[in-house]
């Protein structure tokens, strides 16, 4: 029997992308992976925030051609199993699905195109003449993720208690707190006690047990 839910809101990094994160991927395309690790070590030690780290990392892939994101995606990115199948099942059952990430919108759009999400939201990384400039025009952060979800719901006449949120990290807490149901998947310790359900799995089909 179908529950009351109308929309599933997916995070991207750590939720759908399993082997890296979207910003690290762009840095890797520029051969700057070691610098990324050094920056992330500072985040782990609470020397800088994860949002400050993103602004620093954005400069590491200055000059990267945007078209390389999609061209080299499958060479570097591993996804959780059965994304396409889950999206199809959700739509068959009348649920919409969106992707909301604090990562670069340019990466989110690749997944949006591949799996036909109803909409995608992400941070606006500046591009000029087809290349990243090293600047971030608008970083969503956790508040921006929530506002993006609310915006979609308002336009599509969906109540927040009709939303199922899927995520893995602290950036998903505000979305979780405002959604009708929340599922933490392959989650960090910062999400413990913040979700309705918890999963450790490489098979996205498992979330359907809590939605349909």
Quote the beta fraction. 15-25%
Please bin the fraction of helical residues: 25-40%
- Provide the spatial order of strands within the biggest beta sheet: 4-3-2-1-5-6-7
Tell me, rounded to a whole number, the average pLDDT.
95
End-to-end CA span: 7 Å
- Succession of helices and strands: EHHHHHHEHEEHEHEE
Query: What is the CATH class name of the domain at 7-18 and 79-210?
Result: Alpha Beta
Question: Major sheet: size, sense and barrel closure?
Answer: 7 strands, mixed
The whole-angstrom Rg is 17 Å
Q: Architecture of the domain at 7-18 and 79-210, CATH level 2? A: 3-Layer(aba) Sandwich
- The CATH H-level homologous superfamily of the domain at 7-18 and 79-210: HAD superfamily/HAD-like
Number of separate strands? 7
Q: pLDDT below 50 for ≥5 consecutive residues: which ranges?
A: none
CATH topology of the domain at 7-18 and 79-210: Rossmann fold
């Amino acid at each position: 029997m179908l529950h009351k839910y109308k929309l599933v809101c997916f995070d991207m990094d750590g939720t759908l992308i399993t082997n890296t994160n979207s910003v690290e991927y762009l840095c890797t395309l520029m051969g700057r992976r070691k610098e990324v690790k050094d920056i992330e070590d500072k985040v782990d030690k609470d020397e800088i925030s994860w949002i400050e780290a993103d602004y620093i990392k954005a400069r590491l892939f200055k000059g990267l051609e945007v078209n390389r994101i999609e061209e080299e995606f499958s060479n570097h990115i591993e996804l959780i199993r059965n994304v396409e199948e889950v999206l199809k099942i959700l739509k068959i059952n009348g649920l919409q699905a969106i992707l909301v990430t604090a990562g670069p919108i340019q990466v989110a759009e690749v997944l949006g195109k591949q799996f036909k999400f109803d909409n995608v939201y992400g941070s606006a990384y500046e591009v000029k003449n087809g290349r990243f400039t090293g600047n971030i025009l608008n970083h969503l952060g956790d508040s921006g993720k929530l506002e993006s979800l609310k915006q979609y719901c308002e336009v599509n006449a969906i109540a927040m208690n009709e939303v199922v949120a899927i995520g893995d990290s602290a950036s998903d807490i505000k979305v979780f707190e405002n959604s009708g149901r929340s599922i933490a998947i392959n989650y960090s310790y910062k999400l413990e006690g913040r979700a309705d359900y918890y999963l450790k799995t490489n098979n996205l089909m498992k979330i359907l047990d809590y939605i349909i």
